[in-house]
Amino acid sequence: MLVGFNVSISDMGSDVLATIFETKPTIFYRRLFLIGTLCVVLPLCLLRRVELISLASSVAVLIYLIFLMHLVFVCGLPKLFAGNPLKHVRWWRIDGLVHCLPVIASSLCCQVQVHVIYNSLQEQTHGNMRKALTYAVSFVISAYALAGLFGYLAFIEGEEGGESSALAGNMLTMYPENFVSALVRIGFLYTVTASFPLMLFPLRSALNSLLFEEPPHLCSDLTQIAGDLGPINSVKEVPVRRFRLMTLLVILLSIVVSQCTDKVEVILSYTGSLAGAIICYILPACVYLPTVSISSPNRLLAVLLLVYGLTVFVTPLFTFVGVDSPLDAAPVDQLRQEFAAPGGLHPGVPDPAVPHRLLQIQRPVSNHPSASRNVSYLHRVLQ
């Protein structure tokens, strides 16, 4: 997840710098803004108590609310009332499910925050924790539903023949290049950077337990175990030097890995399929199956859980190998339809209308990061 945060910071930061200086986003802008942002957020990452960043999290929630109101009342509803965008909406597409399933599975990795939030409660009871989780999950579901629906209606564009144009994986790249869009990206930058320190708390604790703490010795006397280890919910303090070294090492490693791709959906997909599927489905099923008898009715449920986890685990292979990106394939498919149409163009015959048509195809994909690659590929197809 930290790698996905770095990719998001690079994308939105380079777009903001390009808007301010009226230039195109470059790899230099991406790396410069990423390093600068992480240097600013580093003091927050070195805090040893999660309660100290609660104010930053509250501001991030407020920014999300402002973004949703702008998306719904400024971008979505005016277009819904002005025209009829619903005729271009595709309510079901099987290849879209293949693309989205690993990203949805990435939400399974958020359970690592449960113990951090529980330890920060003033009254550590199951009722208070259940109430906090209910409010948080309800807000997230509502925010994602509104952003997905009205974002689709706001940026969907109809094409000839009634087909809808392809949408980018990152909705922020489809915003027009103006001052309001820059403010929206800056707000999202703040929300991502505010979430960065929160993700480090469970990661540091897990690394410290894995590398430096010895497992407790097996003992038949439960009172002796309780007397030696103390309360179950007690957390041992990490030494200051080790705490800082682990923080710097994790941030540096996440920066290096984030340079492998510029698509945040790729990071979320692999994170959800690998970490989410293994932790939440595959490992629990593998641990439970050897302990249950063959005749037990729960064994079938464990097998189904294992099969579902393996399905989520291998989905990215079909997503990025067997399925083409709709945005990348749309211009080529459009040209093929023109070639096959009666009286259409022939690949071997030059036509003066081709350059003008190419400009029309360039325009809807010019804001996408892979637009230059699409255009160069179109030139090769037309030759």
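Above is the first protein from milestone M3; the second protein from the same milestone is given next.
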Amino acid sequence: MTLERGALLHNRYRIVEILGQGGMGSVYRAVDENLGVDVAVKENLFTTDEYARQFRLEAVILANLRQSNLPRVTDHFVIGDQGQYLVMDYIEGEDLRQRMERTNFLPDDEVILIGAAMSKALSYLHSRNPSILHRDVKPGNVKISPDGEIFLVDFGLAKVVQGTQATTTGARAMTPGYSPPEQYGTARTDPRTDVYSLGATLYAALTGVIPEDGLARAMENAELTPVRKRAPKVSRRLAAAVEKAMEVDADDRFQTADEFRKALLAANSKTQRLIEDDFTITPSPSQPLPSIEEVPEDNTTGNPPSNPLSGVPIKSQPISEPKEPPTSETPRQKRRKSRGKFIRFLLWMILIASGLVGLAFYAPELPEMLSRIGIIPMANFPSVPIPAATQTLSVTQTGEAVVIIETESATLTPTLEPTLTNTPEPTLTPTPTETFTPSPTPIGGGAGQIA
């Protein structure tokens, strides 16, 4: 029976609204009153022992899935004759079917990103042990969150392959236009079944038209209309990849979802670098969203939007490379920098010392040099006699040691009397007198001096 709004399920989940209904039960939005978060609750009304076993097995398997494009299953329980229930993450936003109804068709870049995200989720499911087939990929089961994340939802027809056997959560079912021929009959389904359904989903997103049914094509009652005949602006490589995924014979399709993903990304130069990245798109600006930067759409390869709402920007990876954080200096770099500072300081000291030595050497000739270059006018500068130094060597030999005594006697008495002729005429008469007369100091007692 259908649960009413406000009903408390399993003493924990408060029903908020019905999200969808089907032959096997309904899907509800509820609030987990223990955790205070929104959840999706899916019921299964087939309560026979066999269906109960299958449903429980599916719940255990799905609860262990951890992939960015799949919702998490958080709870499973059975309520007497009422039914069984799966509780999973509630994903807010719109599904691809609603998006297509609003925009008619989507641009190439956005379709590629949706296809790549779904291929990644399918590849994860197919690689599990045991392998899981979704078997119900269609626009209504592709959910786009307000943050632009893409999810594959609704595992109502999921098939778990354990060796040569398979279990399903409900009756065999299919969706005309999206299911491959083998899903209608008794033929064995495998990962290529999901590849076909994803190809048909992308076909509808590119053209705005549901493709011809797979069973009708297998019976030669219909032919697939080429993508570019319905949407001429779709790139040839993208159209070829989608059509290959929808081949009637499973051997002619991409053999894995990963192959399909790589072909999709290679169809556009903008998406080739995203092979190992997560794929997200921005939702429609018509929805109430959290703060999200909008990127202007570059619709050079995709179809033109049919109305103002169809120009949905694609949230791809940033084009600019992230800036490198500043690296701290290593001890070796610090030592080099300190060594450089010391060398520069030493060079400056040598330069200053050289200047002082040169100044002392050329001091007697400085006035004449300055007058020649016009700094000080030449006056009557008397020559400054520099007395010669008198050296006295005293050698004292005592025993084994010979001591040499050097005695200098020099008297320097410069007298500068320049007269400046500028107006006013000051008279500068510095008369420094310096007398330096060192006295000889006898070493070793003064005995045996030689003059």
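Note on the second protein: The first strand starts at residue 8 and ends at 9.
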